[in-house]
Amino acid sequence: MSVELLEVREHMGRFAPFDTLSDELLDDVASHIEIAYFKAGSDIHHYGQTINELCYIRQGAVDVYRRSGELYNRLGEGDIFGQFSLLRHHPVRFPSKAIEDTLLYYIPADVFRRLCEQDDNFADFVELERPRLEATVEQYRQNNDMLITRVRKLLTRRPVMIEASASVQEAARRMCEENVTSALVYEASPNADDDDARHSFIDNNGQSWTLIGILTDVDFRNRVLAPGLSADLPVVEIVSRPPRTIQSDESIHEAMLCMLRNNIHHLPVLHRRYPVGVLHLSDIVRYETNSSLYLVNNIFSQTSIKGLAQLSSDVRAAFVRMVADGADSRMIGSALSSIGRSFTRRLVELAEEALGPPPVPYCFMALGSMARNEQAIVSDQDNALVLDNRFDAERHDEYFAALAQQVSDGLAACGYSYCKGNIMATNPRWRQPLAVWKRYFDDWIARPDPQALLDSSIFFDLDAVHGEETFVEQLQDLVAEQASQSPKFLAAMARNALNRKPPLGFFRGFVMENTGEHKNSINLKRRGIAPMVDLIRVHALACGSRAQNSFARLDDIAQTQLLPEGSGDRIRYALEFISMVRIRHQALDIEEEREPDNNIEPENVSSEERHNLKEAFLVLSNAQKFLGFRYPMPRSR
Amino acid sequence: MLSFRLDNSQQYSWQEYLAERAARARDPRLKRYFSAGCPAPDTPICNTPMLALDMETTGLDSSRHAIVSIGLVPFTLQRIMPGAGRYWVVKPPRPLTESSIPYHHITHSEVEQAPDLSDIADELLGMMAGRLVVAHYHRLERAFLDSAFEARMGEGIRFPMLDTMVLEANRYRHSWRAKLTSWLGKSPASIRLQDSRDRYGLPAYTSHHALTDALATAELLQAQIAHHHTPHTPIETLWV
Prior knowledge:
Chain A is an alpha+beta fold.
């Protein structure tokens, strides 16, 4: 640089996307900027104006508007604007105005283009809704290869290896010295090349060996002392074989099943053919105590509502563990839903035990997030009863009303609060025979009234929990077949899906609304996840998908032409990102002994998270705009 | 104020002064500079090419102290062009004394290799030609440049300047409101460069350096015009 513009360079170097530029490129930018001052209230870009520079806010704040006058974005120190016009060689579409006294740096178009060409990061950053969000989600996934935690994670030491010819006493002494409860027994093998020799391996000296078995503490008691054998015997005489083994990259779950199936407590772990450790059942038990699997088993062994209710703190511990292990939102949603279903099923079973066998067949049905396998740690209960068509209210309803009441109270005791909209099997309206349910759905779909549908969109996420699953399947079929044929229904659902708009993003310590209002916190469920789930549902209904899970629905939608190229992926990444932010914040709440909720406060959001959230909200906002356009209300009756 | 301004324009028409100097100048560089003249007095500020100038000196007395560095940043009311700016460390005729270092932050080793002011005069005058020079506290810049040129070329240099400190003083020291507050016993607003910048929401610069301060001065002038004047204000009502 001919002149030292340290002030400029240092400031820009602190903010994305300049923070990751090479020194050379950063110098290039800093030496080419121009500067201008804007008094609060003055216009920066007018609609339709041609611009040749990217704007960087050195100090102050700038509002960017849509042509309609609606606020599009509020930007502060270190933010940039004007990139979209520059990238597309368009006149300005989003006019801007200084809302505080503002000092701007202008980056000339040729420098901007050079940056885009030479720095992928920069190019990613300035491209609207670019794979940035995708990259973040993918990176998160890769950084946590424990999605399925692998066996090797539990190994703490190398196995103790004993030659087959060693005496029993020698083996016992080695195990004593090494303080282990098991050792692997091996012998020199003539033909390690033989592919059948599953347990052959070659050591560092090129000698090939065969693992012939495992020796445990119990073997000394059962196979040496009890039968009165000599301590001088070679261990090969008493070893258990052939050994059951597991590969080090198998899941812990797999290891546990293997032990249970074979009723063994020690399991040699191999990397390819080479023994790398021995897993003990206690390792798994220690690991699994907080896991959802253990929890589900535990739920089914409870014999009272009280016992079940005591497990609700375990649910939270399992949730925190999953988050720490790097599970993604889909895994967590499905685990929490499995747990919720287990509670429900166990409660139904307990109710049946108390009330006797049901007078007619029925299906206990889950609605909303549980049906979608997207349950959160904070969740209401949404459920209903689908009864056999032989149901006669006079004679049978007393039974089902009691069953519903017992299950509902039980769920409330286990932490699933009562549904505020009264969408529960305790409500007689939602405790009806299959034929009536079919009529409900017929009505909703054939004579859609947006207001009426507002309260019933939750019924379009439905799944069987217990009982006659075919009842619910018939309803799912009916929805899948008829919804796509009713443009009026889709339009009504689409209209309702636009009721909740995302915020703009963040500005300094506040949540920015598109009215220009500042809020102290944001309800991520109401403003992000639910509207996203709503709009995915509309597209899924339009394409006749039977899937209930939002990600599975997106897979089905991707098979059609309903969404523009790339849009489905953007929605998927945005939903995953927003869901994970909520999940992480809830896990943090639990760890810090606060009551988890759906609200996040800007001060608890990292700057990286802010940026990605802002982008995710933008994806949602654009997807909503497209939805309204894609499913217009048909004009005539 | 009024009489001061009348004096200024009647006795001292800057254009007449510069034309006369152009005619009399012996040094070809100064002749070229004076011939370029200055923007007409009624030129609106928005059409005036400007040059922010800041210098660091070994002290405050132009008869005893010397210039050690000069920073220049060309700008207009619309744009500041720091990339086209210039910065020089210049070698004072007398060696630096330890006691002067607090004034300027330039070290002995820096000035050792530095050119004399006469070596950069051509470029300096070339940057200044046709532009209205803007400084924060013009008296220092004016006095030091004048005596530095006088010492080297036997003729001094004077030209119209905009002074952001004067503009600030008019607003915050000499206005009726400012006088009223001072009668009420409140301490007057500081008109130092950074304190002035704070009033307009301009960032605090950490490095103190002739180029940074020239940039800071250019930004301050844009802010002052945006807040207290209009883009069409004629420069004769602002210059000194």
